[in-house]
Amino acid sequence: MQIGNILFAASVAATASALPSTQSETFNVVSIHSGSDVQYDGFNAAKSSILAGLKSQGASCARPKDQDATFYIKDGALYLYAASATPQEIYVDRSGMGQGKIGYTTGAQPAPKNSERKGWAIKNDHLQFAGNDLIACPNSIDGAWSIWASAGVANPGGNKDCVGIAARIEKTSKPNSCLYTE
Description:
The protein is mainly beta and 182 residues long. The protein has a single domain, classed as Trefoil (Acidic Fibroblast Growth Factor, subunit A) (Trefoil), CATH 2.80.10. The chain has one helix spanning 2-18; strands at 27-32, 43-46, 49-52, 60-61, 71-74, 77-80, 88-93, 101-106, 120-123, 126-129, 134-138, 145-149, 163-171, 178-179. Strand 7 and strand 8 form a beta hairpin.
């Protein structure tokens, strides 16, 4: 009987180790564009948008003083990290209307028309969408920069003075679980 239990436990352990992980490593993101005001600004999430340099996200977080968003990639899709079962998933709208808009949805909320969820990857420690670096545009929200995906438009969404950025990831072993504002 004990041998049966040992074999059963070994079988369960082998099966569990063969299953794919449910999420990759968690990370924060810092914008890199030497000589610009967005240099070294951390990425934030607020009002269903991704920003850089926002002073207060207004999110409900385990560590409220930490104002950088925490992300992870699963199967090519980018998510905001939360310990809860309610996912907040990033989307990109590269259509003529969206011009590279990056936003996020909560729970079962569908992504907007023409948007894409998959295409995120980390290359040389930089977060990219569809193999391209991201764009930062000065924003009126608290002096922050709005973050856009490349869609062939230098100043997307009617913005001015946008700059291309390298979105450098910084892995974290202690992710800050948050529910970000919609």
